[in-house]
Amino acid sequence: MKLAYYPGCVAQESGRELDMATRWVAKALGIELVDFANFSCCGSGFVDEANEVLNVALNARNLAIAEKAGLDILTICSTCQGMLSLANLRLGDAKVKARVDAALKPLGIQYHGTVKVKHLLRVLTEDVGLETIKARVRRPLGGLKVGAFYGCHLLRPADELQWESPEEPHAFEDLLSALGATPVYYRGRVMCCGFPIQFVKEPTAMKIAGRQIDDAKAHGADAMATPCPLCHISLDSYQNKAARAVGHPLDLPVFHLPQVVGLAFGASPEELGLDRHLVSTDGAIAKIRPPAVA
After folding, report:
1. pLDDT band (50, 70, 90) for residue 130
2. Strands 117-119 and 73-75, how do they pair?
3. Which residues fall within 8 angstroms of residue 130, CB to CB, at 6 or more apart?
4. Is 82 in contact with 161 (CB distance < 8 Å)?
5. Within 13 Å and on the Cβ side, how many CA atoms surround 103?
6. Are 83 and 228 in contact (CB under 8 A)?
7. What is the 8-class DSSP label of residue 238?
8. Distance in angstroms (rounded) separating the CA atoms of residues 282 and 274
């Protein structure tokens, strides 16, 4: 499998451990990631709110780069996945497409709409498949209870993305089970992490993040795992602020999606960049029980 790799902004800077873990897992599964230095930001949270057509054009340019190489796009950020996928859909509107084509023409770029946008979670569960994942496990995550946290843009808007139920998804939990972990079901797993309003109403954003962490803990989670680096920022990087917002310690480690896969595949914590987390993952990893000897 060969895919155009769209890491997004966070994984190239503050969340480099996500990129490290993704590359490790891709290599382990024989997935070839093709890098494109001329990919740009998806514009979410900034350009899309100011000028929708400009945002579609921005993402159409990214899609055109992959299209020219004859590749579909792999994303590792729920927000990037949402922006790229919605750009594909918006281009089905003739008026939007005409304006986007006009914006891209001076750059000598034209997008014909042939690229599929695939988040890592879908690649693992659908393209690679859970049976292949199970066969690759070297360190089953038995004893570890993990609360998946989907975030918003992987599931919504549901009518347009047409993937899993935005209220009762199961792909991430299915993957965790294949890795040997015990998935934890809780209401907050499909709620917002608070990131979209961090820069305008930080106290509210921190209360939202703290509430989701509390919910996972109340249902027995030893850790959370998310397919979105922006959610990871809210839940891990800002967890100390979230704890102050809810008035008590939280102390719940938060993994990136490929990190839990990498752990089960036998990668070391160092190879997955776990030392870069603000909340230590050591306690969660210590809960992993070695397989019983027959």
Report:
1. very high
2. parallel
3. 174, 175, 178
4. yes
5. 19
6. no
7. T
8. 9
CA 157 to CA 139: how far, in whole Å?
Answer: 36
Claim: this prediction has a pTM higher than 0.85: yes
Give the C-alpha separation, 294 to 292, whole Å: 6
Token digits for 222?
């030893």
CA distance 94 to 290: 57
pLDDT for 168 equals: 95
Q: What is the largest CA-CA distance in the chain?
A: 67
User: What's the CA dihedral at 278, 283, 287, 293 to 10 degrees?
Assistant: 100
What are the tens digits of pLDDT across the range 195-216? Answer: 989 889 999 999 999 999 999 9
DSSP code of residue 169: -
CA separation for the pair 119, 73 (Å, rounded):
8
Residue with tokens 């038995």: 142
Q: Is the pLDDT of residue 3 over 50?
A: yes
Q: Is 191 exposed, middle or buried (0-12, 13-18, 19+ CB in 10 A)?
A: middle
**What Rg value do the Cα atoms of the chain yield, rounded?**
19
Most confident option among 136-140, 150-154, 196-200: 136-140
Say which residues have a Cβ less than 8 Å from residue 76's Cβ, sequence separation at least 6.
6, 7, 8, 11, 18, 19, 22, 119, 120, 227, 229, 257, 258
Q: Give the start-end residues of each E strand in the chain.
A: 2-6, 32-35, 73-75, 117-119, 145-148, 182-183, 223-226, 254-256
Q: For 213, which DSSP code?
A: H
Residues of the chain above pLDDT 70, percent: 97
What distance lies between CA 75 and its chain's CA centroid?
8
Which residues fall within 8 angstroms of residue 170, CB to CB, at 6 or more apart? 164
What is the distance between the alpha carbons of residues 39 and 69, in angstroms, rounded to a whole number? 13
